[in-house]
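Hi R.,

Here's the chain you asked about this morning:
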Amino acid sequence: MVKLNVGSLQVYNWLETMALELVDGRTLGVPLAWFPRLLAAKPEQLARYELSAQGIHWDELDEDLPIDGLLAGRADMTHCLSQAA
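And here is the predicted structure, written out as tokens:
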């Protein structure tokens, strides 16, 4: 199993994108539109996050993004499920 850690995170809210720099050298661009809570957040809220070996956590926004899910291209599944119901 390959360990995937985030080295840094940049959120470009004017571009509605975040860029994750992984410790293995890869950079992953993720559209904020995949995560409605992040898209609706203020820049200062987006700036208050915690990085871990598992992913990114925004306590104030109640949002957790696992790195393996982002690499697999998975968006906010709760949003998708509520639309399907």
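One quick note: The two ends are 36 Å apart (CA to CA).

Cheers,
M.
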